[in-house]
Amino acid sequence: MKGLKLLTAALLISAASYAQQADIKPAAPGVTYGKTINKDKAISLSALNKKLSHDTVYNGKISGKVTEVCKKKGCFMKLKQDNGEDIMVRFTDYAYFMPQNIVGKNVIVEGKASVSETPVERLRHYAKDAGKSSQEIAKINKPKKDVTIMADGVLVTE
């Protein structure tokens, strides 16, 4: 009986997640999520990195290609940089979510991009938690800088 209740609960949660994703409009050119935005004055990710080398915050529009989206409910996505690294994009107040078919699409996001720095001690802690060897952990000797974007709106361009 307990097994049946657990199975039923798992099915309900799965169905709710699917229904939530099914309510999100599929990505296609011109579709917006969150705040309605346009393409005007969007900068590339490489231009963003140049701006953030002088400042720690940029407010405006940024263009990029989506490489990943949260598989649970579309609560984040990642944009690919020229150097191969991804930039994490989250959505202001989790007010909207992305569809699964947005991967591979070009988008414009409008919001706040910022640089954060993870100290060596925390990086070593994460490496230890991830099961890295003591030799790998010892090689961590510089803080890591990451760019993240908090988007108010997303526009699919291609």
TrEMBL record:
Keyword annotations of the record: Signal
Keyword Signal among record annotations = yes
Database matches in Pfam families: DUF4920
Check the UniProt entry and state the signal peptide residues, or none. 1-21
Protein name from the UniProt record: DUF4920 domain-containing protein
Organism of derivation: Mucilaginibacter aquatilis
